[in-house]
Amino acid sequence: MSRRPTSPTPSPASPSTTSPGPAGRLPAAADGLALIKPAVQSQSGYSLAALQARRKLNQNESPFDFPPAMKQEVMEQAAAQSWQRYPAFAPRDLQQAIAAHYGWVPDGVVVGNGSNELIQATLAVSLRAGDVVVAPSPTFSLYRLITGVLGGRYVSVPLGENFRYDTGGLIDAAQEPARVIVLNSPNNPTGSALLPGEVEQILARTGALIVCDEAYQDFGGPSAIPVLAHSSRVIVLRTFSKAFGLAGLRFGFCLAHPAVAEQIAKGKLPYNVNLITLAAARVALRHAAALGARVDELIAVRERFLAELRRLPGLEVYPTAANFVLIRCLAQPARQVFQRLHQQHGILVRDVSAASELAECLRISIGTSDDMDAVIAALREILSEGGRNRGE
Ligand SMILES: Cc1ncc(COP(=O)(O)O)c(C=O)c1O
Questions:
Q1: Mind listing the pLDDT tens digit for each residue in 315-364?
Q2: Domains of the chain
Q3: 141-146 long-range CB contacts below 8 Å, 24 or more apart?
Q4: In angstroms, what is the span from residue 214 Cα to ligand 1's centroid?
Q5: Ligand 1 shell residues, CB under 6 Å
């Protein structure tokens, strides 16, 4: 029989000792918080309300589950292993398979628990207190958060017209000098991609570590992987969460010069990728051609969706090379369009309109053809009805 743990002795300083339950017995937070860095306390945490919907188009996930036959392969491989043993720290066969598939050297591959872990590891091993990280704005918010947690200084360079990269602006901002420049291409949440040659230009005119986050590169835009052969200041981050449909298993990797990769590996926790995820990564690579066909299908759906979106009145539709599209609502508040999509049509998109550059913007992930037809039909209805005075 299990016994409930005894509750902590209430602190005399606690303001709420009268409320019922353990929460009412919590001590005052101030003592603990005084020891947390102000730079951390001033950051907003990375989180997302877990809303449910029939059509989930808010996290740029694949609409296709990992195929059942491939899941079976993963489970068989995982079941054949000893679960009481730690997984390999740097699984050689997987490093080799990644290197062969992406055209790099095995010693230059670092595997991570999602590419998020490698963003953190890269910044942890490179940034000193006060060091500058230059990044476009808007971009993936984790870069700002981790820079703040590590005591770095985050410098944003606004994207240009149609959210095009302002390479000149990034180069100028990096003259401070910057320690790290973040280039997320295609960029989340705008979908804009760098043009061929722009990474090389930024590399040539700055002295920073260039972190090329290619979470969405399978869907479009040039890759910086060829640039790895020309400079040890370039790092490429990739993930299996999007194109390969493995977000739930958390697998990403970093490609870098082997000497730099060895240092980035020091910023990760040991045994960071569990053996089931390692098995899934091997299976995904073995079936890369079949998984790639699903990416081609999503690109075709995206192009059809973009064409249909552009026919709808009251929207500005931005160019995208990713598996999502950014739209600006011109005729109705984005919050209202978001709510009606969700509540009346069961479609969950991402409301990004709180950021000043993204006022009235929504980001819509590319789902199945059926999902995107449903989005078009719903938007057509919402936009044709107007709604500023519907009291919603
Ligand atoms: C630009 C970018 N980088 C990295 C990630 C994280 O991917 P992972 O699931 O591999 O941690 C995301 C996830 O949304 C992203 O948008």
A1: 999 999 999 999 999 999 999 999 999 999 999 999 999 999 999 999 99
A2: 55-63+290-389 (3.90.1150.10), 68-286 (3.40.640.10)
A3: 141/44, 141/46, 142/46, 142/116, 143/119, 143/182, 143/184, 144/43, 145/43, 145/44, 145/45, 145/46, 146/119, 146/120
A4: 9
A5: 60, 114-116, 140, 184, 188, 213, 215, 239, 241, 247, 252
